[in-house]
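Backbone-to-sequence.
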């Protein structure tokens, strides 16, 4: 495939989509846009649900929307008819692919096009379940909520939007395959990405275990193999394998662990509660980075739990220039992560989105 700047992808914003589908399609097209693809975000009358998502920046705009909409061109439509006509004109101008969400009102129009189409849905095709249709439901249906947490308490949703963004990555991959296939002269591609199937794939070990006769894993709480320990300034993920227990013993000078017969996974699980209770005061007296340095010296693959704010000054992120400054039309500057890869030696910096008139967009597609 030639330069990505010659590729145009439509992000068809569905006014009736649940938030998790908008997050998924927004992530798929963000990756395309930051790689240089001309992504046209067709907004319905009114606003996009992403614009209201917290957290909010000091100027009142959504940090999530600013993150997902970098490098895109925006077309604001004023009515359903205006939206339909804009889509027809853009399709006629020769766009490369369309990313859309299930339930799109203009789906009948899209069925007639030969443009590659990537559709993002919540459930697998043919599955209709009653009840809440949310990312939390997706996590529960995939079994991901049964991985961590206290089994005596209600499940807690995972941080961020992990199911939606993972599905967005899948949709990005499907779009790239469709573009490559079209470039090679193949038939137009149609792909359907399901959040539930994507999340279940992430949880593949549990699914594979059940097929092999194992019990479905449940939240082990304080009996989990790996514990997250409280430090004086945050949390630390205490990760090790049983065959490294001699190094663990050496890591905690002055604490006798010789009475704990940890030699394999069953013995680790049998003794993890006692081990955690014995080591908790040691962790509580030390900062995360101090614990990390001690673990590194002893060859233990454990690590501190960082917040996004902590990562702003992370030496590895700074060395890789992972966070870059983005200035919008008002002159406001925000820090934004960029895609962690280079293309022919060139790094891609995210750009602020731009609102453009339809005729200008069509001229750009035809060039």
């Amino acid at each position: 495939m030639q330069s990505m700047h010659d590729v145009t992808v439509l992000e068809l914003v569905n006014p009736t989509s649940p938030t998790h589908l908008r997050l998924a399609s927004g992530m798929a097209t963000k990756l395309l846009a930051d790689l240089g693809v001309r992504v046209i975000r067709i907004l319905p009358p009114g606003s996009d649900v992403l614009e209201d998502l917290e957290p909010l920046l000091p100027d009142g705009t959504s940090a999530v929307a600013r993150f997902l909409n970098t490098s895109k061109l925006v077309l604001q439509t004023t009515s359903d008819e205006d939206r339909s006509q804009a889509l027809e004109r853009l399709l006629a101008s020769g766009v490369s692919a369309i990313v859309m969400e299930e339930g799109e009102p203009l789906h009948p129009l899209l069925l007639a096009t030969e443009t590659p189409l990537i559709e993002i849905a919540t459930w697998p095709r043919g599955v209709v379940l009653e009840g809440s249709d949310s990312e939390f439901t997706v996590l529960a249906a995939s079994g991901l909520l049964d991985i961590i947490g206290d089994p005596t308490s209600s499940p807690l949703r995972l941080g961020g939007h992990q199911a939606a963004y993972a599905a967005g990555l899948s949709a990005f991959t499907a779009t790239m395959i469709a573009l490559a296939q079209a470039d090679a002269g193949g038939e137009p591609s149609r792909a359907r990405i399901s959040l539930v199937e994507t999340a279940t794939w992430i949880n593949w070990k549990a699914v594979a275990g059940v097929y092999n006769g194992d019990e479905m894993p449940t939240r082990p709480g304080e009996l989990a193999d790996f514990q997250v320990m409280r430090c004086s300034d945050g949390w630390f993920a205490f990760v090790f394998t049983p065959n490294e227990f001699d190094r663990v013993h050496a890591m905690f000078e002055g604490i006798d662990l010789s009475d704990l017969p940890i030699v394999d996974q069953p013995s680790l699980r049998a003794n993890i509660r006692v081990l955690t209770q014995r080591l908790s005061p040691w962790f509580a007296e030390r900062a995360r980075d101090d614990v990390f340095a001690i673990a590194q010296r002893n060859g233990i693959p454990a690590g501190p739990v960082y917040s996004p704010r902590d990562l702003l000054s992370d030496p590895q992120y700074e060395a890789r220039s992972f966070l870059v400054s983005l200035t919008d039309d008002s002159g406001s500057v925000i820090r934004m992560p960029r895609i962690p890869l280079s293309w022919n030696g060139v790094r891609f910096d995210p750009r602020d989105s731009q609102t453009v008139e339809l005729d200008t967009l069509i001229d750009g597609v035809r060039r």
